[in-house]
Amino acid sequence: MNKVFKALSDPTRRRVLELLRKGPMAAGDLSGHFAVSKPTMSAHFNVLREAGLIHAEKVGRVITYRLKMSVLEDALYGFVKAVGLDLNSDRTPADFGDTTKETE
């Protein structure tokens, strides 16, 4: 679960996952959405792959990435259980209220 949350901690990697929600994409097409170098994008892809969030398939010189939603769902479910939230409850997020206290 730590690898998943490390992967999700970066806005570029979160955006990659958003793009992959629409369907598989080639590495070059994904990289075109970001103003960073190819090695930087490759490093982001590696973090996402190591976390199990994406699957890479290489055909010739083209690498196509696919989102592995089940891994993300499992990590989020584990997190929710770890913080003690009941997923089977009929309560909505608004029912939990703001538990932070403001200091004046």
Structure, described:
With 104 residues, this protein is of the alpha+beta class. It contains six helices and three strands; from the N terminus they run ααβααββαα. The protein has a three-stranded antiparallel beta sheet with strand order 1-3-2. The protein is elongated and about 45 Å long. It starts with a helix and ends in an 8-residue tail after the last helix. Residues 98-104 have low confidence and may be disordered.
Tag the structure with descriptive keywords.
alpha+beta, 3-stranded antiparallel sheet, 6 helices, disordered C terminus, about 100 residues
Outline of the structure:
The chain is 52% helix and 13% strand.
Helix count equals 6
Q: Segments where pLDDT lies below 50 for 5+ residues? A: 98-104
Helical content class: 40-55%
Mean pLDDT, nearest integer?
83
Shape: elongated
Beta fraction: 5-15%
Largest sheet: 3 strands, antiparallel
Distance between the termini: 37 Å
Query: What is the tally of beta strands?
Result: 3
Compressed to H and E, one letter per element, the order equals HHEHHEEHH
Widest sheet, order of strands: 1-3-2
> What class, by secondary structure content?
alpha+beta
Tell me the layout of helices and strands.
Blueprint: H1 2-8, H2 11-21, E1 25-26, H3 27-31, H4 38-50, E2 54-59, E3 62-67, H5 69-82, H6 93-96
Antiparallel strand pairs: 1-3, 2-3
Helix pairs in contact: 1-4
